[in-house]
Amino acid sequence: MGIRIGADYLSGLQDDRDVWIDGKRVADVTQHPGMCRGAKTLAGFIDRQHQPEYQEKVTYVDDDGDRVAMSFLIPKSKEDIVKRGVAFYEWASWSNGMFGRTADYKNSSLMAFAAANRFLGEGQTDFAQNMMNYYDYVRKNDKVLTHTLVNPQISWELAKEGKYSTKVALQIVKETDGGIVVSGARLLATLGPQADEIEVFPSTLLKASDENLPFAFAFAMPISTPGMRLICRDTYDLGKSNFDAPLSSRYEEMDSVVIFDNVFVPWERVFMYRDPGLCNRAFAETNAVVHMMHQVAAGKLAKTEFLVGLLCAMAKATGRDKDMATKGQIAEAMWMAESVRAFLYSSEQQAHADQWGTFVPLRRPIDTSRNLYPKMYPKLVEMIQLMGASSLMATPCEADFGNEISEDVEQYFQTANLASRDRVALYRLAHDVSVSGFGSRQCLYERFFFGPQFIMAAGYYELYNKDDMIDKVNNLLSQN
Ligand SMILES: Cc1cc2nc3c(=O)[nH]c(=O)nc-3n(C[C@H](O)[C@H](O)[C@H](O)COP(=O)(O)OP(=O)(O)OC[C@H]3O[C@@H](n4cnc5c(N)ncnc54)[C@H](O)[C@@H]3O)c2cc1C
Q1: Ligand 1 centroid from CA 48, angstroms
Q2: Helix (H, G, I), strand (E, B) or coil at 32
Q3: Choice from 105, 156, 187, 234 to test ligand 1 binding pocket (greatest atom count within 8 A of CB)
Q4: What CATH number should be reported for the domain whose range is 6-284?
Q5: Closest residue by CA, ligand 1 atom 17
Q6: Domain boundaries, the chain
Q7: Gap between the Cα atoms of 277 and 291, Å rounded
Q8: What pLDDT sits at residue 219?
Q9: Cα separation of 153 and 266, whole Å?
Q10: pLDDT at position 206, please?
Q11: Architecture of 287-478 per CATH?
């Protein structure tokens, strides 16, 4: 048991999952034209865990002698934190950060909950052992997880009061000797249709009131669980070739709203139950949120490096890389890459033991990265649009290089430093980053996937040690 091969991951998706897209139920995710290539890409990444050039970086041998993914390693030293960071960066570099939901993201949170499992014993029922069993199950079987944290809102008034609508939010409807029964909806499971399991964890802003007891829980179940339905957005994989759509043909990680219709969850899969206070503290006190930020910062570094490379390649195509103003514009993107690198390094090098005896990267630098990136990424996309301009539209397709207009295409799409075919390939990539449906969704993802920006920012403000700085102000004023 341990790391799987990609073929096993793909065959695991061929179950009774209830996935809907484009007005129809999907018979087989691995055959669906809008989802299968994303799943196959992930399968290829899973296979890389076995390849000698990657294996040492992205896996380790656990205490039972099984080779498992590095993201499950419970860090006991700064060196372990650095090893985890190397593995996150390696995974992200396989897609240049364009496949955000590789399994290491959720594994990081699961690892943290397992390492801090005593926290789950603080509720009315001790669910610590359930978490350990689940961690072992996911690690030993190399399962791919998605998660859903957010209840749909029907009204701003209700949300403002910290309440959920019983009409739409996921809630406990029954308790039995064997488990709980839940109904309602949750937003938004990225990779849901292409995952093995879903973690249904608490939203972080549950008001600790009796009214919210039915909404306060955490559990995990297979995607194919009876009564669970995934309703997908439109696909951005439109069946184009890798040349025509270099990103959307490879990295379509589907987003889905998840509906639960009287879904039975056995007690052994429940981790928190009817405890809003515990739910609210869970991600912070287990440090799951910090370990997730670590995976995210490593991924954003890979992504930003790629976009810097793209901007430089675009500038070189026409010789604009000699122009002072262009250099200055691209330098801004370079600063972003170097900022994320510095945050990551600083955080890893200042890793420390937490209250559970687990090492954790220092929160402040990677929390800064997490708060800045939703502003950086749209800016990077804007830079590509401004540099690309009409070239982002002057994009004949691969077939045009082999049909009766090929002479025109070969002639009129060249630039000073690139033959037509290379120029079109480059700008099709820039188009997929900055203009296509895939590119727009990436931008929305970066803005929101870690939660609303104002909530992350307010949390950052609360944790920031402001007193020393206020003292500096007071010191000066006291000298007046
Ligand atoms: C591409 C994508 C993938 C995602 N993947 C996942 C996933 O895998 N799992 C998951 O659980 N979630 C996922 N999310 C959901 C994400 O967590 C939410 O989008 C995010 O928490 C915001 O919630 P919301 O979408 O309900 O927006 P809302 O809360 O409705 O917010 C809408 C806008 O109003 C603003 N706003 C809301 N309340 C206030 C306030 N009190 N004061 C000021 N402004 C306010 C917000 O900042 C935002 O700009 C994903 C989202 C996207 C876009």
Answers
A1: 33
A2: coil
A3: 187
A4: 2.40.110.10
A5: 451
A6: 6-284, 287-478
A7: 21
A8: 98
A9: 27
A10: 67
A11: Up-down Bundle (1.20)
Which ligand 1 atom is nearest residue 450's CA?
Answer: 17
Q: How many residues does the chain have?
A: 480
The residue to mutate among 231, 438, 449, having the most atoms of ligand 1 within 8 angstroms of its beta carbon, is: 449
The DSSP code sequence of 233-265 is: ---S--S--TTTSTTTTT----EEEEEEEEEEE
Distance 449 CA to ligand 1 centre (A): 7
- pLDDT average per 10 residues of sequence, the chain (480 residues): 97 98 98 98 98 97 97 98 98 97 98 97 88 98 97 86 87 96 96 98 75 93 98 98 98 98 98 92 95 98 98 96 97 98 98 97 98 98 97 96 97 95 98 98 97 93 95 95
CA–CA gap between residue 426 and residue 455 (Å, rounded): 38
Block residue for tokens 């890893």: 348
Tokens 């359930």 found at? 130
pLDDT of residue 204: 61
User: How far out from the chain centre does Cα 305 lie?
Assistant: 18
